[in-house]
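Batch manifest, entry 17 of 40.
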Amino acid sequence: MICYYGVSLTGRSHREQSLSCQDAHIAVQLTDTLWLAAVADGVGSAACSERGSVKAVTALAEFCSEAIHTCSDWVELLKDGFCKALDAVVAMAQEEQTALYEYDSTLTAVFYDGTKVVYGQSGDSGMIGMDCDGHYELLTQVQKGEAYNEVYPLRCGPSKWTFAQINKAYAGLLLMTDGVLDVAVPPLLFDQAEPLYINFIRRFLSDETLHSTPADSEKLSENCTAFLESTFCSAITDDMTVLAIWNNQAKTCLPAADYLVEPDWAMLRRIRYNRLYPQSRLNEEKDSDDCHKQQK
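Output type: structure tokens
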């Protein structure tokens, strides 16, 4: 049985400016076994992005709900769905006589039936998979331009979109917009053996979640909301969207205890500082050597 829950919350920076949430998410059942899940993150500088993100996910869902009955190639179906989503945003912009870029949003979507995954990606949201051993994998690559904070929205078209099929039975999937994803995949861990912040990710999808049923979705959404609005997540100022979808019939194992050990953040910060300011580290070593010489 496929289950899900999802939340989209206005970020702290947007609340301070009395702005609405520019994120959107959706999950729909397409067949007896197949589901579509999608998240979209409206670009902050775009005046109508909150409506663009909603239009993108709803148009994608509407198209796939109809086309799934005549198309068996999930990758091609998702590609067509992204095109239809963009067409819907373009039509809205034309009808309202507003520049298309004002509706910019990212779009990350997945077909999931518990046995394989087909995903599409445009922009800097992303998806994490939980396998049957209780381990997590980052399944998507963030799409950003060379300029600082430049992101490729849906409007950039097929040349910037990526699609892939993964023939693996993931117990569950997590879709996140970039504000939350940046914590789940922090820069401090990028060159570590485990680049994901496991204990953060487990707050949204864990072995306990996998035993939940559709009747538990509301409670899971409430718990997710409370955690995202807690002091633990106070550093996240952007809008926050988390969408979890899982197979509660999946047989899973608990990971080993060392997999759940909290990273040594202080050490990781020192490593990053020494990389950024190598001369400072050399000066500290020289001062330490001089001190030892004086003591002798």
